[in-house]
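Handoff note, outgoing to incoming analyst
You'll be picking up this chain. Sequence as last confirmed:
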Amino acid sequence: MSTRNIKRAAVVGGGIIGIAVARELTNTLDDVQVTVYEKEDHLAAHQTGHNSGVVHAGLYYEPGGLKARLCRRGVELLQEFCAAKSLPYEACGKLVIAQTPEESKRLDNIFARATANGVPGARMLRGDQIPEVEPNAVGLSALHSPGTAIVDYAAITRALADDVRAAGGTIRLGTEVTSLEQQGSGVAVSTKDGDEHYDLVVTCAGLQSDRLAKATGEPPTPRIVPFFGQYFLLGGEAREQVRGLIYPVPDPKHPFLGVHLTKRIDGEMMLGPNAFISFGRESYAWKNVNVRDVLDYALFPGFWNFAWHNVPSAAREFQTVISRKKFIREAMRFVPSLEGASVLPGTRGVRAQAMNGDGSLVDDFVIARRRDTVMVRNAPSPGATSSMAIAEYIVEQALTE
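Most recent structure output, in case you need it:
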């Protein structure tokens, strides 16, 4: 395969993946002019700035899939970058705890995947070994991942952006891309300020990825359906009850993981998130209702098929939405000593959940190519962990004819 000659490149989206792609372009290509378009007035405004900050080790993902490959590579790159930039990176470790024999069986399968994916230090623990890692945690068995870490993804994004600017790149904040048009050669990028031509365009639009893809002529599915996730913060008197990260075993009957405990890089301890349909793709409070976003999924048959098959899950999640006590009880399954602990409202994020036309959820990363445009159509967790590896992958693909 021959290598394309790219002199002008644009990236749409100022989250961690978009900025990582811009940096990779400046690192890989000589004399390339890179422009990043971000519709908000600051970087990492949406998913990047509202996530848990976890650097996932690669426990769950299908061996050989994009998630597994890019997650492990992404961890290496993040570690190196944080060390080079003196950014905090804490390998606090993670326990996935089984409470029933059925969960223990599923946990054994996860351990097999972790082993196949080369997750360093992953090991199974009996119930009586759990307190060696988390003195206040209980369970039938557990999977320990000592290398799972926490970071500040917004700070990492800003540091990546510093590298882009230092290499001569331009980051245009407050500039929304309305459409992309493939021309005879290259792509016209349209904004309120007019059109500009680029040899290559990479879209990393997150919550708006399907709309931008559709405006480019791509199929409307996978469709983004927004689900919010609410976090709470443990009160100071209970903060020392947990050392690192404590997760439940994923249940195949439920599309989302359920409440877990996550240490944050600033020392706070988060409970959450739950997962429930959001009234807007960028709505971080109940009062923020976006009618267009609601109609988007309300008129999408796939959403109703998904909802019909997940009524028990919706009921479970809704209980944690309306009851703070129920939320805490979910966490107490793993750490009973949290009973009576005070909690404070934390951040709320909105997940860009990609959904197929039949209502099935898209699990792996989806990166589509349309001549001179590369589109990230699905980058769920571990998207932030994998960001720099996704950037490598995209640029390698984009440079080949």
